[in-house]
Amino acid sequence: MSEQFTHFDEAGRAIMVDVGGKAETEREATARVRVVMRPETLAMIRGGTASKGDVLGTARLAGIMGAKRTADLIPLCHPLPITSVRVELTPEGEDSVEISATVKTTGRTGVEMEALTAASVTALTVYDMCKAVDRGMRIEGLRVVAKSGGKSGTFRQD
């Protein structure tokens, strides 16, 4: 294991960080994002009348699948043995869906990227399934709101 974690080798080339010498610990991360839409679009989602089917159920499944594919999507991201992915979609007010994705593993590196990927893919799926009726939807505020485990400890953002 190198003394310093870096994505660059001695010649300045991009590399995957060597985490081989780190201890395996239980790790968890939660990411959130919001999809803002017209009130009519949210009513369609709530009513289950979208022409493409169950928006919330399909988006939830897509987010779980996205978390599992993070290392294929993000360069230099370690493939991790994910032990749990939970994606929640909550209609908020009259015009948005709040998405929360929590990912867990026991490993040598954190799951923040997996949580962010799950939340992103979920939001993109909501957009994809509703874009024919609402091209003005916005995906806003993607962020990690909590993480635990590993050397850097616990982080929480309200």
From TrEMBL:
Q: Which InterPro entries match?
A: MoaC (IPR023045), MoaC_bact/euk (IPR047594), MoaC_sf (IPR036522), MoCo_biosynth_MoaA/MoaC (IPR050105), Mopterin_CF_biosynth-C_dom (IPR002820)
Per UniProt, residues of the Molybdopterin cofactor biosynthesis C (MoaC) domain are 16-150
Which terms does the UniProt entry file under GO BP? Mo-molybdopterin cofactor biosynthetic process
Q: Which domain of life is it from?
A: Bacteria
Keyword terms of this UniProt record: Lyase, Molybdenum cofactor biosynthesis
User: Which positions bind substrate?
Assistant: L76, C77, H78, M113, E114
Which pathway does the UniProt entry assign to this protein?
A: Cofactor biosynthesis; molybdopterin biosynthesis
- Where, by residue number, is the active site? D128
Q: For this protein, what reaction is catalysed?
A: (8S)-3',8-cyclo-7,8-dihydroguanosine 5'-triphosphate = cyclic pyranopterin phosphate + diphosphate
- E.C. number, please? 4.6.1.17
Q: Care to name a GO molecular-function term for this sequence? A: cyclic pyranopterin monophosphate synthase activity
Q: What does this protein do?
A: Catalyzes the conversion of (8S)-3',8-cyclo-7,8-dihydroguanosine 5'-triphosphate to cyclic pyranopterin monophosphate (cPMP).
Q: Which PANTHER family match?
A: CYCLIC PYRANOPTERIN MONOPHOSPHATE SYNTHASE, MOLYBDOPTERIN COFACTOR SYNTHESIS PROTEIN A
Return the similarity comment.
Answer: Belongs to the MoaC family.
NCBIfam families from the UniProt entry = moaC (TIGR00581), PRK09364.1 (NF006870)
User: Tell me, how does this one assemble?
Assistant: Homohexamer; trimer of dimers.
Q: What is this protein called?
A: Cyclic pyranopterin monophosphate synthase
What's the source species' lineage?
Bacteria, Pseudomonadati, Pseudomonadota, Alphaproteobacteria, Acetobacterales
Instruction: Please name the gene that encodes this protein.
Output: moaC
